[in-house]
Design brief:
The protein is built from 3 helices and 6 strands, in the order βββαββααβ. By secondary structure, the protein is an alpha+beta fold. A 4-stranded antiparallel β-sheet has the order 4-5-1-6. Strands 2-3 form a two-stranded antiparallel sheet. Helix 1 (19-31) packs antiparallel against helix 3. The protein is globular.
């Protein structure tokens, strides 16, 4: 199994919405992928609750059977739509992938 974790720092405002509004919208869009992409085994989204200089705004934790399934998920049109939205609201992004 492969755990895929992504964290984003969001722009203060983007697409006419605040950072907080965009965080909630991104969470909704990511959670809507559950059951829509066969390779996706689990998905959890969290919005940061305690601000600090080191914190990110939103985190995604997903699980896949293997790297091939993660790559398939990455190019799935439903995921690409969410990814495109995310690109429009984020300042930065970090990723960790590890075997479990």
């Amino acid at each position: 199994m492969l755990k895929h974790i992504v964290m984003w720092k969001l722009k203060e405002s983007a697409n006419g919405k605040t950072k907080e509004e965009n965080a909630l919208l991104l969470k909704e869009k990511l959670e809507a992928l559950v059951g829509e992409i066969a390779e996706l085994r689990s998905l959890e989204v969290g919005i940061n609750a305690i601000e600090s200089d080191a914190s990110y705004d939103i985190v995604l934790t997903t699980t896949f059977d293997n790297e091939a399934d993660l790559k398939s998920y990455a190019v799935n049109p439903k995921h690409v739509l969410v990814s495109d939205f995310c690109s429009s609201i984020r300042e930065s992004r970090v990723v960790v992938d590890y075997l479990i």
